[in-house]
């Protein structure tokens, strides 16, 4: 798997039974990928085996599971994505000022899970209290992720072909 999240660490209220926890395991694939077409049972079995192999739990400790397939979960970047996102942001601000975009998919902006959740928290505060937090500023200075180099514009680096 690509990532594990322990939802009980976000809030104990996310798990009904205080003696258990809820783990989210992410597998990165796409709709045309063979893994995408695996049955739920196959995916759950693989997840259980990987938890055991990592020493996180024993197989008999996995009580239940579910599969959720999220198509196009990650934004795809090209050389013009910053300009395209700017056009959408400007139009939404003008035409739908009460529509708030949050998270990775909503903002078409790569953020870690905690940053994506923070955009939601800030927007909730804006709505509930009339505050003016800008969710687009969350994680804008994270050099490990959106590295700026001398002479290059800020933003996510775009994949480029390697000359053979």
Could you characterize what this model shows?
The protein is mainly alpha-helical. The protein folds into 2 domains: 3-61, no CATH class; 75-164, no CATH class. Helices cover 34% and strands 5% of the residues. It contains 5 helices and 2 strands; from the N terminus they run E-H-E-H-H-H-H. The chain has helices spanning 7-10, 40-53, 81-95, 103-107, 113-129, and strands at residues 3-6, 23-26. Strands 1-2 form a two-stranded antiparallel sheet. The longest helix has 17 residues, at 113-129. The protein is globular.
Short description:
This protein is mainly alpha-helical and 164 residues long.
Q: How many distinct beta strands?
A: 2
Order of helices and strands: EHEHHHH
Q: Which consecutive residue ranges, at least 5 long each, have pLDDT under 50? A: 143-148
What structural category characterises the helix and strand content?
Answer: mainly alpha
> How much helicity do the residues have?
25-40%
Identify the notable features of this structure and list them briefly:
single chain, 164 residues, mainly alpha, two-stranded antiparallel ribbon, 2 strands, 5% strand
List the helices and strands and how they pair.
Blueprint lengths: L2 E4 H4 L12 E4 L13 H14 L27 H15 L7 H5 L5 H17 L35
Antiparallel strand pairs: 1-2
